[in-house]
Amino acid sequence: MTGQKEPAPVLFECRDVHYSYQGRFPALNGVGLTITAGERVALVGANGSGKSTFLHLLDALIFPQRGTLAYIGKELTEKSFLDAEFSLRFRRKIGLIFQNPDVQLFCPTVREDIAFGPLQLGMEEKTVKARLELLAETLQIGPLLDRSPHQLSLGEKRKVAFATILVIEPDVLLLDEPTAGLDPKTSTKLIGMLAEASHSGKTIVTATHDLHIIEDIADKVYVFGQDKKLAGAGTPAEILGDTALLQANNLIHIHPHHTRDHKVMKA
Amino acid sequence: MHIPDGYLGPATSGVFYAVMLPVWIAASRIVKKTMQARQVPLMAIGAAFSFVIMMFNLPIPGGSTGHAVGAVLVAVLLGPWAAVIAISVALAVQALLFGDGGITALGANCFNMAVVMPFVGYYVYKLISGGAPNDSNRRVIAAGVAGYIGINAAAFLAGVEFGLQPYLHHTAEGQALYCPYGLKVAVPLMAGEHLLIFGWVEAVVTALVVKYLEKQAPELLFREKVPMKIPTKLWVLLGILVLLSPLGLILPKLVKAGGAWGEWGADELKGLAGYIPAGLKKLDGLWQAPIPDYTFQGWEGKGLSHLSLAYIFSGILGMALVVLAVWLLGKYLSRPERRPLMPKRDFVGRSIRGALDFIKESIFADEIASRPGVLQSLDPRIKAVTVLFFILLVMFTRSLAVLGLIYIFCLILALFSRIGIGFFLKRTWIFIPFFSLLIAIPALFSFISPGRPVASVGPLMITHTGIKAAGVFFGRVVTSVSLAVLLSMTTRHFELLKALRFFGIPQMFVMVLGITYRYIYLFVEIVENTFRAIRSRVGSGMHYRKGQKVVAWNIAHLWIRSYALNEQVYQAMVSRGFRGEPRTLDHFQTRRRDWLWLFGAAMIILLLAYAEYRTKL
Ligand SMILES: Nc1ncnc2c1ncn2[C@@H]1O[C@H](COP(=O)(O)OP(=O)(O)OP(=O)(O)O)[C@@H](O)[C@H]1O
Ligand SMILES: [Mg+2]
Questions:
Q1: CB–CB of A121 and B517 under 8 A?
Q2: Domain range spanning residue A78?
C-alpha cells in the first residue's frame, strides 16, 4: 500500500465457488466475490449458509470443487500447497480463528498453543518467546499461559485463540464468530483490537450473526443466503437498511432493534 | 488388566519393552504412510477416545456394572496398526499421569492390550464378518465375538506373564521375587475372570457400538486393507518368538530341576548347586548387571535359611502395622467427605462419578504440582530420570530392608514436597497395593511357597519363604506405586509429558501425547454431560438391556464426534503451518539444585545397592 490514490491490490478473487462435504452435503453453491488488501469484510447469513466453509476455503484448508479461488493472482489448489515454500509463505500471511475454540486450542497448555504456529512456521524459539511475552501482556492473558485450555472460560478461550493467530503476525485475519458468547465488554474490547489491527493495514474478514458489530468491523458486508449463494452485498448501512433481505436470511429477529422497521414489525 | 509395577520381573518387563519398540516403529511407519500429516491428530484423538471408553460403565445382569477395555473396538474403528499407537498412548498417559498400570510394566501392558487384543480382535472380526453388507447382523455378531476373544487372548497372556514369574525369578530357596503364583494358579485366575465376566462386557460394548455405527455412520468404520508386508510378518514372527522366549529361559531349569518351581525340594537344589549358579549367573548378568547376584553365594554351606526369624517377623510386623495405620487413616480421612451411598447398579451415577473423579483428581494434582516443595522445584527431566532409577532399584532389589528404606525416603520426599502424608498414603494405598496385599496373603502358605514352616494357621502352614515372598512382592508394589505417584503429583502433567523427549521419545509422540491429554478432558466432560442428560430424562432405574444400549449408543456417538473433531483439529494445525513434522517449545532449564539432586539420588541408589550386596540384608 504505497500511493494513497492507487487502488488496493486484490487479495482474494473467487469465482463461482462450489463446495460440498463428502460430496453429499452442499455448503456453497457458486459464490463469487473479491477481497482487496486492507479491506474489512463481514460475512453474515443464517446457520448453515456456508460462512465457515467459505473462511476455510480462504485459508486453503479445503479447495473449491468447482470454480476458482485465487490469492494475489495465484490459484489455490491442493497441488499448490505441496510446494512447501509457498505453503509456508501463505500460512505466515493468513490467520484463521475457528468458530469452535476447542478445535483451535489443541495443545496441553496455552503457552504451547500460542507458540505452536510460529514454531511450525520456522520462527526462532527466542523470537517466539519474546512475542509470546509481549502478546500476553497486551491481551492480559499472562496468568493463563500455563493453564490448560480446558480450564478456561469461553471468553478466555476466545482471547487465547486470538493470541494464537496474532503471534504469527499475519496480514489477513479470518475470524469465525469471534464475539459469540462474549460479554458486551469483552466483545467491545475485541472490536477495539480489530480496529487497531485494521489501522495497521491488516485485512480482516469476519463471519458473524451479530448485526450489532458489523458497522464497527466492516466496510463491506456479504450476505450468504440459505441457498448457499450470495444473497446480497453492500456497505453495512445498506445491508442493515434492507429489512427484507435480513428477514429472508434469519438475521433480523435476533436483534430487531437494530433495524428501522422494528416498530412496524412488532405492530 | 493393567499390570502394576512389581508383578513382573525386570527380565520380563525388559523383554516386552524390547518387543514393543520395533512394533511401535512399524506401527508409526505404517500409519504415517497411510495417513500422512493427519496421523498426529487422529492418533491423539483416537487415544483420548480409548482412554475415555473405560469411563462408560455398562450395567450387567445381577445389578453390577463393568467397563470395557475397548481395544477391539478401536481396532475396528481405526484399523489395527493405528489402534496399536492410539491404545499405547492411552496406556502411557494412564501409567504416567494416573498411576494406572506400572511404568516398568508398560511394555507388557501395551503388548497385551495394544497389540494382541486389537490384532486378534480385528482379525476375528474380519474373519466372521467376511463380506457381509453394512448393517447386517453378521457384522454385529462378529464384533461381539471379536471383543470376547480379543480380551480373553489379552487376559490369557497376562496370566501367562504372571505365571512365568516364579519360574523366572526366584531365589535359590525357591522364594518368588515377583508375582508369586505359577502358571497353574495365574492362568486359570485371569482366564476365568475374563471368560466369565469381563469378556461379556467387552463383547456387548463392541457389538452394540459397531451396530450403531454401521447404521449411523458406516463411513467411520475402518474399511481399508491392512498393510501387511514382509516386514510386518517379520514383526509378527518376532512377537511369537518373544512369547516363546521365556519358555526357552525356563525350560533348561525345569528339565534339570526335574519339576516345576514350587515342587523343588532342598536336596534337589543342593544337588544342582555345582553348576546351576554359573549358568544362571550368566543369564542373570544380562539384566541384573547393576546388582551382582548374591543369593547364590554361600548358601550351599548354610542350608536353606540364613536369615534370622527375628528379622522376618519384625518385617512382617512392620508391614502389618503400616497396613493397619493406613487403613485406619484412610477410614478417618474419608469420613468427612463420605459420599452418598450409591447403589452399585446405578451405572449412570458411576459413570458420572468416574468422570468427576477424573477431573477432580487432575485439578488437585495440578494444585499440588504448583506448591513450593522440594520435588516441585526440580527440573522435570531430571526428576523423571531419578524416579525411574529408583523404580528400577525397587524392581531389582531382593531385600525387604532396601524396599523399606526407599519407601521411607518416599514418605520424607512427600513431606518435603508439601503433600500431606495422610493424603499421600491414601492416594498410594487405595487400589493397587491393597489389592496386591490380598494377592500376597495366599503366598504366605506352604501350598504356594514350600519351605521351612514358621507358624501355622489351622491346617495351613506359613513358611519362611512364603513370608519373604509375600513381603518382597508387596513391598515392591507399594514402593513403586509411591514413587510413580510422587512423580506425577509433583510435576505438572504437560511438563511430565514433555520431559519424555529426554528419554529419546520422538517429538511426534510427545505431541500426540500432549494433544491426547488435552482432549481427554473434552471427552470426559462430554461423558459427564451425557450421563447427566440421561439421568435427567430417564433416571437411572432402567433394565440392564436398555442401559447397555444407552451406553453403547453414547460411545458410538462419542466416536462420531471424535472423528469430526479430528478432521477439524487437523485443519486447525494445518492453518498454523503444520506439515507433519512437529516442533515444540523447549523451556526446561536445569539449575544447580537439579544437579545436586541428581548427584544425591545417584549416591542413595548406589549406596543402597552396595549395602544390599555387602550385607545381604
Ligand atoms: N463436516 C461437515 N460435514 C458435512 N456437512 C457439513 C460439514 N460442515 C458443514 N456442513 C454443512 O455445510 C453447510 C454450511 O456449513 P457452514 O458451517 O459453512 O455454515 P455456517 O454459515 O458457518 O453456519 P453457522 O452460522 O451455524 O456457523 C451446512 O449445511 C452444514 O450442514
Ligand atoms: Mg459457522
A1: no
A2: 10-266
